Structures are given as structure tokens and as C-alpha cells.
């Protein structure tokens, strides 16, 4: 074909207008992502961008807003049990799921209701 996809550059999730501070509290304060600066020409659209390691999440403002309840990003991590302890310390709800063979996984929801899958491969 002459081309090859290399990786996912970023995942965009939607949020309601004026929700940038809540996004910072969750993605920085809870998940530990760092906010990265948006290009100047995109700042007028609102929202915020976050990054950790090779993962970028862009929070985009959408009106009317509706959270992604089924569609979701899935992040693989090491030491899911330590992350669960962190969520419990921060009073963040999560849902355990045992339906994926070879993985421990949970679902969390950002402050806007977007579902996020977090998993640790066990094999």
C-alpha cells in the first residue's frame, strides 16, 4: 500500500463549555497527566490537552455535550492494584471487570461521564 500507521497520536474526549478546571483537577490531579500547551490558533476553542509518557488526551469543548458512555480509550499500565489504591484514596469510583482473558481491568469515568478503561496485562 505504501503507507503504515505508527501509533495513536492522541485521544480526544468531549466536555461541556467552561469545564477546563474540572478537566485539570481530574487528568492532572487524579491521573497524574501533565497539561501541555495547545497551539495558539486552537486555544480559542477552549478545552485542554494532557500528556503522560506517550499518551495524549485532548479534552475538547462540545455543545451540545454528551459523554462517551460506550466508546472509550483504554490505557495499559503497570501496577493496577497501586492505581486502584490511589483512586480509593482520592474517592474516585471505579468498576472492576473480569471479562477480558489475560488482563485485570477497571473502568473509571471522568467528571463529564466519559468512560476510560485501565488495564494491566497479566500474561
From TrEMBL:
Superkingdom:
Bacteria
Q: Give the InterPro entries listed for this entry.
A: Glyas_Bleomycin-R_OHBP_Dase (IPR029068), Glyas_Fos-R_dOase_dom (IPR004360), VOC_core (IPR037523)
Q: Name one Pfam family in it.
A: Glyoxalase
Q: Which PROSITE patterns match?
A: VOC (PS51819)
Provide the VOC domain boundaries.
Answer: 7-121
- Indicate what this protein is called per its UniProt record: VOC family protein
State the organism of origin: Bacillus carboniphilus
Amino acid at each position: 500500500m505504501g503507507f503504515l500507521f505508527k501509533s495513536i497520536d492522541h485521544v480526544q474526549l468531549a466536555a461541556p463549555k467552561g469545564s477546563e478546571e474540572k478537566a485539570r483537577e481530574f487528568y492532572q490531579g487524579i491521573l497524574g497527566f501533565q497539561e501541555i500547551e495547545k497551539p495558539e490558533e486552537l486555544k480559542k476553542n477552549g478545552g485542554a490537552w494532557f500528556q503522560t509518557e506517550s499518551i495524549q488526551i485532548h479534552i475538547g469543548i462540545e455543545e451540545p455535550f454528551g459523554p462517551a458512555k460506550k466508546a472509550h480509550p483504554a490505557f495499559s499500565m503497570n501496577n493496577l492494584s497501586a492505581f486502584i489504591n490511589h483512586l480509593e484514596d482520592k474517592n474516585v469510583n471505579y468498576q472492576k471487570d473480569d471479562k477480558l482473558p489475560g488482563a485485570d481491568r477497571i473502568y473509571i469515568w471522568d467528571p463529564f461521564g466519559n468512560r476510560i478503561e485501565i488495564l494491566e496485562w497479566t500474561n
